[in-house]
Structure formats: structure tokens, C-alpha cells
């Protein structure tokens, strides 16, 4: 079917002559109905950089470091190299944000190799390669590249971007790109540790050069070690131990001791150490308040300091109430 449109009647400029190619009659229709179709073809282009048509099996990232997030046979995700478990919620958010990422501007319909260095795309600052498993009768199961997204220079809150299988040059906003990971450690499983309150032997609280030791004697039974002062709420301490046993980071912030001062960690910071009956010792230290309202915390994983946002409720309802040393006590 073809639709043909002519000019407006002399007595009604709000109408326009029209006809169908398979009919001889001529009619008039509202001129406003054609308004949207007179726009540039750019208006009709899909603004998404990538469209997810099925599940992904791996995402290769080249940014601060080079790593791959790979789906296992049991639908869990691992970070390669190393094989560290990836956080499933963070992976889901990563894939969702990739699918939601939209072009803010179409800079050029056809970009050529000489254009790439000027916009930082000759050596992209970030690159995401998305792969999905494809079954082929001859080759068996292979990983096919769904899309490769390159990101270059950031100018005026616009980051130049392109798909390597397209000729166009785009920009995306810096805020949208910031939702995507740039380092492998940002995708790590957020569960810090796991233990049951019955596994706890004692909890030590270090603050401002002072120490308080609280010993677990049994179910809902706690006492202060010799030299420690204060009042113990037995029921609350069992719940505190239970809550700490499932500690999970709100989000990863940084790695390394070089970031301690930046996030408010000092020699006098509050530090809570949980000693289990097995002799294992788990420690978490608290720093400044994050913009989100949560508190920065630091713990050691794989013999390396990890800084994260501590769960707001766990900190304000339990840590501040039951795991601090009042200034009046020594």
C-alpha cells in the first residue's frame, strides 16, 4: 500500500489532499497527522546502543583493568582471570544498564579511521564486548559477539561512543556511562562473610585507643571480659552477632591502604573484631559518612583492604547502639 499526499485545499489550510494507491478517490485528512512524519530520519532511529535479544554468556571489559564476567553452567557468574565469584545482583544491574544505555547525540553518520583519535576512540578508555552462546550444527556451541561498545573522550559531560559493527559516531552522557563498571573489583560478590551467632566466641570493640571485650557464654548470655566496663544487653548482643554474621556490602568503593584517609579512616576509628570459636578473627573498621548516608567501612579480603558502604540499618540500629564505647568509659 502507498499513501499519497498533495497540497491543502484553498479554503482549509488545516487539511491536505490524500489518496490510497489502490483506490481512485481523493480525500482530505488533517495536516497535523503528517507533522511527525516530516521530521528528520534521526528522530526515528533507535537510540539504544545495544538491544538485548537473549541472555548473555560473557561480558569482556577493558577499562581500568582487563577482565571478563562469564556465566557458568549453574547460572552463577565468575570474574576471569582468577575465578572470583561475581555478585549476581551487580551483574544483573550491569546488563540492565547496558540495555538501557541510550545515545544522547548522533554526531556523525559515517565515522572514518582518521576521526577516531580526535574523539579518543583509536584507543578506547572503555570497551565492552558482549557475547552469547550460539549452537551451530557444524561447529557446536560457540560464543558469538553480540556487540562491541567503545567509549572515548569525555567533553562537556558527553562521552564519544561507537559500535564497532556500525559506521556512526555517537555520544552518551557521563552519568549513564558511570553506571557501568570500570574495574573488576567493582563486580565482586558483596557478601563479606557468613557465620552463625552460635559460632562467636567474643567480640572486641576498639575505639579512640580503648578496647572493650564482650564474651559470649551461650544463647542470650554475654559478659564483659576482665578490664572492660559497661552494661551488656544479652538479647541485643545475640541479634548483633546474628546481623554481623551475614554482613553484605551495599557497594564496593575502593581497594588498598592508600585510600584510608580519603574515606575517613584514622588510627582512632571504630573497629569491631569478631573472634569465632575456631580461632578465626574477622574485623571491620568504620570511617566517614558517604554521600548516600551510609558509613564507609573497611575489611580485609584476600589479604587486601577493601572499602565499602556498610548497610545503613545495621550500622545505625546495631553497631552505633551496641558496639561503641561511650566517652565516659575507659
Keywords, separated by commas or semicolons:
330 residues, mainly beta, 9-stranded antiparallel sheet, 8-stranded antiparallel sheet, 4 helices, 20 strands, 12% helix, elongated
Protein described:
The chain contains four helices and 20 strands. The protein has helices spanning 88-100, 174-178, 234-245, 312-322; strands spanning 3-5, 15-20, 27-30, 58-62, 66-71, 77-80, 84-85, 105-108, 126-136, 140-155, 158-163, 169-173, 200-207, 210-218, 221-224, 251-255, 271-276, 281-289, 295-301, 304-310. Strands 7-6-5-4-9-10-11-12-8 form a nine-stranded antiparallel sheet. The model has no long low-confidence stretch (mean pLDDT 91). The chain has 330 residues and is mainly beta. A hairpin with a 2-residue loop joins strand 19 (295-301) and strand 20. The longest helix has 13 residues, at 88-100.
The counted number of beta strands is: 20
Report the major sheet: 9 strands, antiparallel
Compute the number of helices.
Answer: 4
Across the major sheet, the strand order is 7-6-5-4-9-10-11-12-8
- From the N-terminal CA to the C-terminal CA, the straight-line distance is 88 Å
Structural class: mainly beta
Mean pLDDT across all amino acids:
91
Topology order in helix (H) and strand (E) letters: EEEEEEEHEEEEEHEEEHEEEEEH
**For the CA atoms, what is the radius of gyration?**
29 Å
Strand content: 35-45%
| Poorly predicted ranges | none
Backbone shape: elongated
Question: Could you give the topology of this structure?
Answer:
Layout: E1 3-5, E2 15-20, E3 27-30, E4 58-62, E5 66-71, E6 77-80, E7 84-85, H1 88-100, E8 105-108, E9 126-136, E10 140-155, E11 158-163, E12 169-173, H2 174-178, E13 200-207, E14 210-218, E15 221-224, H3 234-245, E16 251-255, E17 271-276, E18 281-289, E19 295-301, E20 304-310, H4 312-322
Antiparallel strand pairs: 1-2, 2-3, 4-5, 4-9, 5-6, 6-7, 8-12, 9-10, 10-11, 11-12, 13-14, 13-17, 14-15, 16-20, 17-18, 18-19, 19-20
